[in-house]
Amino acid sequence: LPIYYDFKIFLNQQKEESYDIVYCDPMFENPQYKSSSINPLREFARYDKITQDDLEKMVKIAKKKVVIKARSNDSVWNLYNFDKKIGSKKSGVFFGVIEK
Q1: Straight-line distance from the first to the last Cα atom of the chain, in angstroms, rounded to the nearest whole number
Q2: pLDDT score of 73
Q3: Contact 95, 85 (CB under 8 A)
Q4: What's the mean pLDDT in 83-91?
Q5: What gap in Å lies between CA 34 and CA 22, rounded to an integer?
Q6: Which strands make up the sheet holding 93-99, listed edge to edge?
Q7: Number of Cα atoms under 13 Å in the Cβ half of residue 47
Q8: Is 41:87 a contact under the CB 8 Å cutoff?
Q9: pLDDT tens-digit map of 22-66
Q10: Would you call 96 helix, strand, or coil by DSSP?
Q11: Which of left, alpha, beta for 11 (phi over 0: left; psi -120 to 50: alpha)?
């Protein structure tokens, strides 16, 4: 069930291993503005970057894994040693997976 909430507050309120999988799909740091379907929503989006602390909290509340969606040149890849990085070189969109 999707939840609309400030993710930093949400992460702080969750108990350890509350969810099987934690999925995070933040706005890309380096967007491609040719994506006409998302352009009308950009003004309403949150642009907070994922931090090391955020990732550690996601790992804490996940039972099985954490999945992060990001572009290949976003800074999130420098924050954590992901177990898997799956995606498309053509689109530049990848999913980082942290297994527990």
Answers
A1: 22
A2: 92
A3: yes
A4: 94
A5: 29
A6: 19-24, 62-71, 93-99, 84-88
A7: 7
A8: no
A9: 999 998 998 877 767 888 888 888 888 999 999 999 999 999 999
A10: strand
A11: alpha
Structure tokens, 87: 């995606």
Report yes or no: 50 and 26 within 8 Å, Cβ to Cβ: yes
**At residue 82, what are phi and psi to the nearest 5 degrees?**
-70, 140
Asked whether the beta carbons of 82 and 98 are under 8 A apart, the reply is yes
Greatest pairwise CA separation for the chain in angstroms: 39
The residue type found at 10 is: F
Give this prediction's pTM. Answer: 0.86
**Which string of DSSP letters, residue by residue, matches 19-64?**
EEEEEE-PPPSS--TT-TTTGGGGGG---PPP-HHHHHHHHHHEEE
Q: Are 11 and 48 in contact (CB under 8 A)?
A: no
